[in-house]
Specification:
This protein is an all-alpha fold. It has two domains: 2-199, MFS general substrate transporter like domains (Growth Hormone, Chain: A, Up-down Bundle); 216-432, Growth Hormone, Chain: A (Up-down Bundle), CATH 1.20.1250. It has helices at 2-5, 8-23, 29-40, 44-71, 73-100, 105-137, 142-170, 175-197, 216-221, 225-246, 249-255, 262-284, 291-311, 313-316, 321-353, 358-365, 367-386, 409-432, and strands at 391-396, 402-407. Strands 1-2 form a two-stranded antiparallel ribbon. It is globular and about 65 Å long.
Length: 443
Amino acid sequence: MNSLKNNKWVRAAIPALLLHCSIGTVYCWSMFSQEIADYIGFSKGATEWAFSFAIFFLGMSAAFLGNIVEKDIHKSSLIATICFAAGMAGTGFFIYYGGAHKGSVVSLIGIYICYGFIMGIGLGTGYLSPVKTLMLWFQDKKGLATGLAVAGFGAAKAIASPIMQSMLDNLGEGGIYKMFFILAAVYFVMMFAGHLLLKKPDGWHEPQAKEKKQSTLAVIKSKPITNYIGIWIMFYLNITCSLALISQEKMIVKCVGLASVVGIISTVSAIFNAGGRLGLSAWADKMKDRNTIYKLIFILSIVFTGIVIVTGGIKNGEGNIALTILVLALIFVVNAGYGGGFSNVPTLLSDRYGMSNISAIHGLTLSAWAFAGLTGNQLASWIVKTFGEEVPLEHILADGTVETIMVNPTGYQYVLYATIVLYIIALLACLFLVHPAKKTNEG
């Protein structure tokens, strides 16, 4: 029994997965945003802001509450559990209210507050809470450990989506708000179990006041400040570029003639995303400098984006197998780089700034995620609306009927012009601002 109490899988890996596989379901919003919009009497565009707010407050709560995570992971993981479950239950209540009072702005604002703000706090604290603990338990394989948890966050959508769809199909009238109540209870149990199990190694102690622990800003300034600025910039740009492409992924796949297998492509993309989180972070454990992973991510992204730009792959891909393969390769490379960029951030920071303030520094860095969540999708949407024009595209559905959809191949192609410029800036920051550092085993 005592061995279980001090087992790194029981006290770090399993609780991390319980926390991250719960909060990662925030990415399921696109599954039911249209149904929520119809149920409460608002447009899909209005309800989509709930997701944007959730990602924004995830990053900002991580930035401002990082010190709480640093001081007490039990307090922070409990805050995460309560806020995430309460936010989900509150979202269910305001969907119910919106169904009874169609078009009531109270329901929409309530959803913004519950799904965006309250759940956002749960997301930020829940995302951070297990990361440092994992690195302390897995000193020799920090990348593998953090990659495992962050992969759980990325894979949560693939795991939860079919379950949520089944509930929507079988819960009858009002199934959309009933689903939120059920999930609030399930995720509270999962996260509370993770909260109880999560524990730092017995040998580790946080520096006491008498040891004059440095502030987060002082630790960052202990290295050239351009080093941290470079990490923040490349993290922000990687997420922005990834979201810009991923937000248009479904329509791009249809443009190249694969409308009938959009769901399969989406699943494969999710696998690359999760694989990038786990594989690239584990690979970085074997590298002298983890920043090499980011150089690889940006170079591959630039190369594949450039090839699809030069060949006009999105505009010309329909009926051309070679171009279709290139477009899919770009989608998969970007998804893997998106995941790998997330999972390598905490270990990249710990190599440069040590373990003492890593939760606070990691939290501050996640503010990049907050701003990217507001800019990536919107950048792509603006480009698609501004450039090119929509054209009809016919494709055959599974039942043999023909569906006509409107697509803008030129607009999707122009998104790549923006992302390749941003990827080049990110690579320059990676090469010239982020300096090499010897790995530290502090702790």
